[in-house]
Amino acid sequence: MANSSSLSVPEVIKPRKRIEYIDALRGFTMFLVVFQHVFTFSCSVMIESAFLNILQTFRMPLFFFISGYVGMKLVDYFNTKTYISLIKKKFAVQLIPTVVFSGLMTITGPFSVFNVNFPVSGWSVYWFTIVLLGMFIVYYSLNYLLNRCGLRRNISLIMYGIAIVMYVLVFTVPLKIPQYLELDKTFYYFQFFVLGTIVRQNSEKVAALCKNHVFSTFVFLLFVSTSIMIYNKEVSMFLSDNLGAFWRYLAIFNGFAVRYAGLIMIFTFFLSLSPYFSANGRVSSAMQFVGRRTLDIYMLHFFFIPVLPVCVADFFNSSENIVLQFFFGGGFAVAIIVLCLFVSALIRNSDFLAHYLFGAKISEKAKN
Q: Which has the minimum average pLDDT: 31-45, 187-201, 260-274?
């Protein structure tokens, strides 16, 4: 959810132009985040839904994938000056807004972040930006070290291998590290961040692969089949009873595969619509605008999630009607996003606040 920042980096970093379908994809993923949070936080009783669980399998991996895709740096030489500048930039963009809004949320909102349980519970609802900061630190540090070691050609593969090792460590080694560092989530999701950088580096080859009908069909069927085995209770119980110990290994594979398949499926879909998003129609422009304001929306939307009666949760728990869930959650999500954008626009009237709360560039007029 990182936004473009005003903090300059060395000129060895090549400038980029915005990619319309990626901005739209970010906007769509931000919608999914708010949509999910409406069901997660608006009721005191948890709403159990296979539909929501399926969305959750690829929602966060997709967001970290996009963060890696847009955050990848093309550098001619990743030297010490570049490294320090990039780290300082990410600390400013990720940490300052998180601290400020966590403080405001603790004082006024429904979630208490800075309390006596902070060392144990961590950043509560604002964990994402801290995890993303950790990912950028790991990514830039590995980039710096591997460049210094002369391993620049194989950086992507080495980094992905390290990401998988980090993922395995989460499940096998107890991390005795303060929770407020959010390293468990950083280790878990870093693989998707690195995947985003790899896809960006090989964008032409990936685009050709995504246009291959055999590949896209395989990914779709993999997502559907793994989702059924995970979230259809009758199927999962049948397989568990009949496959015995093998089911444990299959369940691990399913959990791994469903996230990758869902991520690739949604990315492929938006890539196929890139001419539509480049045309900048009304819907396309709206999605891209939301995609350019993801940090703003993420920081603000927790203040506007409605508190709903328990009977609403009871109703959805007794009904698996996807249409009702979609329109209910979607309606609230759109309303909350619109409200966030309005408040964001008011805050962005101040160049100072826009810079330090949302990472916006300070205009030349304000500098003078």
A: 31-45
CA 171/CA 179 separation, integer angstroms = 16
Q: What is the largest CA-CA distance in the chain?
A: 73
Residue located via tokens 């940090």: 295
* Terminal Cα-to-Cα distance of the chain (whole angstroms): 30
From residue 327, how far is each of 33, 224, 299, 309, 324 by CA, in Å? 15, 22, 24, 18, 5
- Counting other chains too, the contacts that 274-279 makes at CB distance below 8 Å and 24 or more residues apart are 274/20, 274/21, 277/20, 277/21, 277/23, 277/24, 278/20, 278/21
- Which DSSP category does 211 fall into? T
pLDDT at 126 over 50: yes
Q: What are the percentages of helix, strand and coil residues in the chain, rounded to 5?
A: 75, 0, 25
Distance CA(227)–CA(61), nearest Å, equals 16
Task: Measure the CA–CA gap between 301 and 110, rounded to whole angstroms.
Answer: 12
- What is the identity of the amino acid at 251? A
CA distance 65 to 262: 12
Which residues are paired to 75 by β-bridges?
A: 13
Mean pLDDT score across all residues of the chain: 87
Report the helix count and the strand count for the chain, using DSSP H and E.
Answer: 19, 0
Instruction: Please list, in sequence order, all residues whose beta carbon lies within 8 angstroms of the beta carbon of residue 129, skipping any fewer than 6 positions away.
Output: 1, 2, 94, 95, 97, 98, 123, 295, 298, 299
* pLDDT over 90 (residue 344): yes
Residue type, 139: Y
pTM to 2 decimal places = 0.90
